[in-house]
Structure formats: C-alpha cells, structure tokens
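re: ur question from yesterday

yeah so i grabbed the chain u mentioned. its 586 aa long if i counted rite. heres the sequnce exactly as i have it in my notes:
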Amino acid sequence: MFRTNTCGELRLSDAGREVTLAGWVQRSRKMGGMTFVDVRDRYGITQIVFDTDNAELHEAANKLGREYVVQVTGRVAERSNKNHNIPTGDIEIIATGLKVLNKSDVPPFTIEDDTDGGDDLRMKYRYLDLRRSCVRGNLELRHRMAFEIRRYLDSKGFLEVETPVLIKSTPEGARDFVVPSRMNPGEFYALPQSPQTFKQLLMVSGFDRYFQIVKCFRDEDLRADRQPEFTQIDCEMSFVEQEDVLQMFEGLVKHIFKYVKDIDFKDPFPRMTWADAMRLYGSDKPDTRFGMTFVELKDLTENSGFAVMDSAPYVGAIVATGCADYTRKQLDQLTDFVKRPQVGAKGMMWVKYEADGSIKSSVGKFFTDDQIRTWLERGDAKPGDLMLILAGETMKTRKQLCELRLEMGSRLGLRDPQKFSCLWVIDFPLFEWDEETQRYYAMHHPFTSPNPDDIALLDTDTGAVRATAYDMVVNGNELGGGSIRIHDAELQDKMFRLLGLSEEDAQYKFGFLMNAFKYGAPPHGGLAFGFDRFVSILAGLDSIRDVIAFPKNNSGRDMMIDAPSQIDDSQLDELCIRVEIPEKES
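ran it thru and got these structure tokens back, copy pasting raw so excuse formatting
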C-alpha cells in the first residue's frame, strides 16, 4: 500500500503514530530552517514538516513543486500553530521519509478554491480543475444524492430499468442528436431526449413503478442550466392520478432536502396554476423566495393621451420596497437593463413614492398625482417604495416584467441561494399556437393527457384545453415536470390529429406505442427531475456545469478532448455519408 492513512483522516488522537501519506503537493513554505509542505488528496490536506536535522530530506523537500505526487512517511505530532479551518489543523507530520512518485509541470492555473483560471482554461484542463476541493465537493454531493434517491425510490417499490440509448428519431420540441447506422446505410438512430415512450411501454408491460437515473440528449442552444447531454431522474407509475404523483415526488424532494441540507419542510408545497403564475410573475417557473408580484394597471391608465400606455394591451408594474431613494443614474441603469435584447422592452416608467408621501414620476405630465396614487394603492405601496412600470403586448410584457423583477430581487439581496422556496405549477395549457406555422404544438409532449373536464373542448376551443401536467419549481428553477399520460388509443389518435400529424405520420413515428395501447394500457403518469439542476440548487450554484465531471462549454464543445471533431473519410465512406460544409457568409 502507498499509504496508511488519507490526508484528511488524522487527528490529535493519532499523535505519536508512524504513518505514510500519499498525495499532491498543494503548496510549500520555507520558514527559517524548516520547510512546510501541504499534501492533498481527495479527503483533505495535511501539513508535513521537514527540518534541517535531516539535511538530505530537507533539501529534497525544497525541490518539490506544486502538484508533484509524493509519498511521505513520518510521525504525527501536535501542531503548535493550529489551523482551525481544516479538520487536520491540530496535527502535522514530522517527516522521516520522502519519495517523489511523479513530477508535475507548473499547472496553468492555481489549484485553489479561489483559482486564477478562467472558465475556458479550467475546462481545457478539467482534470486539474477537478482537484479543487469545491468542484470535487460538488461531485461528492452528486454521488450522495444519487445513492439516496435510489434508496428512497427502492423503498417505495420502484424498479430501476435501463432503456435504450439508440432509438428512433421522433423530433417534437428540441432537435435530436442523430447517429448513422453502418449496417443500415442511409438510416439513422437518434439519442433519446428522454425515455418517454419506453417508460410508457414499461407501464403497458406491467412494471407498475419504474425509475432511472439516465442520460438524455438534446441538440439545443446552451445556457447556464443546459448541456447537450444531461441527467434525469426519470419516473413513471401505473394506476395513478395527478394527486398520487404529486404526493409521491413531493415526498422525494422533501426527503432529499432533509438528507442534504437538514431542512424539514413540514407543510405541503404550495400549488399555483399556470395562469396565475403568468399573471403574477410572468413565468411558469416563478421565484417565490420574495414577493414583488405584478400589479395590473391598464384600467387605471386608459385615455390619458400617453400613447405608450393607451396603445398597449397590458400595463403592469412591480413595487420595490424601500427603493424610492434610487438615483436617476440607477433608474437609467434599470431602463438600459429592460432594453437589452435578452429582455426586449422599449423603455420603462417609474413612480417614486417619497418618504414624506409626495410623488415623483417619469410620466407625471400625463397623469395627476391623484391618478398615480390609485396605482400605488393597487400595488399596496408605502411611502419610501418605488414602482416600476412596463407596457406592451400582454405575454411579452409579462416576461419582460419578470426579468425586471428578478433583477430587482438580485439587487436587493432577496434571492439568497441558501433559502429555498418550492411549489407545484399545475393546469398548464395542453397546446400552444405557433403563428409562423399556423398550427398547434404540444406544450409538453403529445402523450400528455388533457384535463378530463376539458376533453369536450378539444374540437370546439382547442387553445383553452388544460393539460393534466405539473412542474416542480424551486427558487425560480424548473426542477422537474411530468403529466398523466394518455392511455386510450382513440384519444391518443385524436391528439396526433390536432397536432397536425397524419395517420401515416403518427403510425411511422409512434406506431409501436399506439399498437401497445391496444393490449391493455393502464392509467399511468410520471415525472422527470433534472438531476444536474437538483444538485446545483442544493450546492448553491447558478450553473449545472460545475456538478458535471466533464461538461461542454456554451458552444457545445468539450475543450479538453476537442470534441466535436472531424472524422476520417474512410469512416464516412463506411457510413455512406458525404459532408458538405456551407460557406460562411461574409
């Protein structure tokens, strides 16, 4: 064995023991006639002391560089200047032996929690980045959560069943990643966006309760909470209604919060309809850690002669508590924020409700103080508050107001990553209309069951039909979502027709599922949690990238192995593929 103990194991009770440690040199310090070397492994850091009593050993220690791999023997001793920031800070090792197992080049960035390496550099040398304790801690959290999720679901009678990775392309929603088949020239597999149809087939097969912690793939534009490959906690249950699913997986989420953060949610999670979420927050994943819900003002601003408000179908506002002292510069910064292309507003209006009860407003020449006071009264504003107002097309403006609300929440310190607010969003629309293609699309997927109360509206008022669908939202993040599925072949066929799929197209894409439903499909439903997102939320991170061992960058590239990359012509020939790269526009 290269070691008797790890670098995070020894304590004061081990004083006097002869031990052997192995790990990487974190740093070394020369003080007088002594050299102190911190040796690190996955478990922690231990300080090693080399003194001039052994000149040869001391000289060898002085030649050690950062990230050298070493084996050290010595005696555990009580440390005179204790370091209370690390678990091993009460002891040190008085070295009696040193062996360099491997030298290291100078690393391209410091292997510290507060590193000097930028994102691209750290991703290129990800194997070094993973040595940092903060990144390693994220993966340890991921490991513990995966095991606990499996234990919990096993205790509830769920079976983990693997489903195929090479499947049929059925593009609905995000683009598929496709894989050419050498044995079937001109034909392609797709990588699964989720195991949706397979888990439904498992319900038809009588498996009753299925789960899988599974890789999924979507070829879509990336952002902080997206990667081209990601991991879901995928679950399905038979003989259930929506309430059964919500109770089961609310239990799982509460269990994991207790296990990881020792947070005990006693009360049921609140439930909010999609319509209310959009009306009050402008988002189907509202951050409910703070208030600042929308105030609708359209009826109070009509016929003012102010074209911006008169012509707008929607006028909405938020009230920021205690912000009436915002300077003109701060208000201009907020106006610039809402004008950013990512937000898309044309401008912003504001009302300051001064501490003395007076009013200042950017639209004061169009409205009297008494008129503006009615706005403040509707928003329950108090002296010292600031009202921020946007106007325009209803859904678009609500989304813009949502971005402004989140920005104000961040500025006011209301989005504490260590505070958690969970809720269910329910009663989503079953369909969404696309103006460009002039057709309905499934808001979730084509297997989502309509609300039983709305089935009669499928032919007469298609856009008003609600789905039996639900999302779990935590701190403004969609942690997961699911639905009760259509298990009736006739209703599923009707759904395909409403989505513009001909009988031939539906049979070609989903015939295997429709045929399976003919053989006794049980009522079933389920949910999939974003596992990467779940870990990142509990780790207090904004991005899922640091909870994935080897992530891609925002261009979908693996900077470390330089993928994607070109392949040999001989491989293309075997696959009967010819590549044509379009010329870049000048």
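noticed a couple things. The chain has a mean pLDDT of 94. also The first strand starts at residue 18 and ends at 31.
anyway ttyl
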